[in-house]
TrEMBL record:
Protein name: DUF4192 domain-containing protein
Amino acid sequence: MTNSLSIPAGGHTEGRQNPDTLLAAVPGLLGFVPERSIVFLAFRDHRVVAATMRHDLELTRGGLPTVGMKQLFDRLGALAASYEVIGTVAVIIDDRFPPDDPRWRKIAAAVNRAFRPAGGLSAAFAMPEAVADARWHTVWRPGPTANPRPPFVRGVLDTGVLSDPNTSATALERAVSSGRRILARRSEMETMLDPEAHCSEPECCAESPVPYHHAPDDADARGLELTLAVVDRFDAGDTDLTCHELNRIAAALVSVHVRDALLGLSLTGLRPAAEDLWRTLTRRLRGPARAAAATLLGHLHYMAGEGAYAGVAFQAAHEADPDYNLANLLDTALLNGMRPRDLGGLAELAFEVSERLGAQLPPAVYEAAG
């Protein structure tokens, strides 16, 4: 999922639309260059992308979608219909067959059937990779007697060469708004969360606290106060953490009450600082505390419409603690295409919990994406 962005469908060439601008925007929308994937762009109107959905493209030996993929297409078609979109574009990025291979058209036709509840596909394109100078082909479009569907106002070109996604307007907008560059592949996101040393102190004594069920208490209030103070320090540029501080934060995060209160930072002006801290803690902590930090990070990305980053964070949480319930619930919601704004109740709960613990979060300045 991504935030809503305005993307022109493309200029006109030889009386038809050139979708290059749209296709070059895909890596910028996702935050990374997809490989062996199918990407869906759901349009709210002729220019605004309401949602972007990417999935690994699983094929049979004959190059057709697996049963699981067809079931996924059905779920996504129903999801697109719930978004009340006026058009959906499918983009296949896969090097297993040439971009003009007839198998891509068969896959696109299957997607079109699945997306009938949302009005069907507006068009489908295939290219071996989403990099500059890659050759793309239009592999599916409405029948010759059908009117063009949004975002297109006329027929599209049969083929073309992709412009540089790194210099697309979408990539530049993302860089300005989030400070993120387009990653070469999704695995780079995983590397950003690779574990590292707990601290640099020679006599490091890392602790891995175990969560336990309890009513909110004074220890929770102190843990929340400490963690919010560290977020403020990160916001001021002070990112040094002692071994003792890391252990105290770990003890705070394994409390569901503290964790739930901290979810609210995803919509406040402290979101960038919180993101930096959650990422640091995900790399330095272990066990349930790492799972809690990764879940906070994933939730923050989810609310910002950065689904790929959120998915990687939830994966890190699962690896740290396979039974960490909130991470598993949020990851399932993400995979099923639940819109961030539909999870707004978590943020409201966070502000209530923080007040019960005697702390006050900054006011919300962001809205959940989607």
